[in-house]
Amino acid sequence: SVLDEGSAFSFEIGLELSDEKPKIEKTPTKVDLSSFHILLVEDNQMNQLVMSKYFKKWGLSYDIAENGVEALEKIEENEYHLIFLDLEMPIMDGFETAQYIRAHPNQDINQMIIIALSASVFSEIEDRTKEIGFNDFIGKPINSNYVYLKLTKYLLGTGAKYVSNNINNSEQSFDLSYLLESSLNDSDYILKMIQL
What we know:
Layout: E1 37-41, H1 45-57, E2 61-65, H2 68-77, E3 82-86, H3 94-103, H4 107-110, E4 113-118, H5 123-132, E5 136-139, H6 144-156, H7 176-183, H8 187-195
Parallel strand pairs: 1-2, 1-3, 3-4, 4-5
Helix pairs in contact: 2-3
């Protein structure tokens, strides 16, 4: 160790790569979701684009807010069946937004279904969402099958098979098949994603 320079250490860990993919429940048979109106509260344009693509595919009516303040304004003006709420946003984050919703005097608003969206893998974050009153938690990157199962579970009371919140989707960050799956073979969408 050298004073004011610190030390450098290195080590090797011998691990074998697994060919096994994480087990994810298959998407249930498509059902009609066109009568539902949902709110996506998300500041990241790429995530907005991905989720919008899914919502359109499933026939959902939806609005997008880029932060908690916009979300609270939209909630006062519109009726939503479910909210997907990102936890980390500018101006007002998802935690504070959910607290405002749960404290709202209107029961139609304070009982709204809220699903947290987060890239955090720490159990403390998920525990905090439960304490605040979120109904559920979805990790990022977003998996369409998982989102669809949550939608059908909460909007229709189906999708009852429990899917672990600990699905490791981290490999999708670098796997181009994820981009193809989320694009639904739409070349304009793929181009927009690459440009972001």
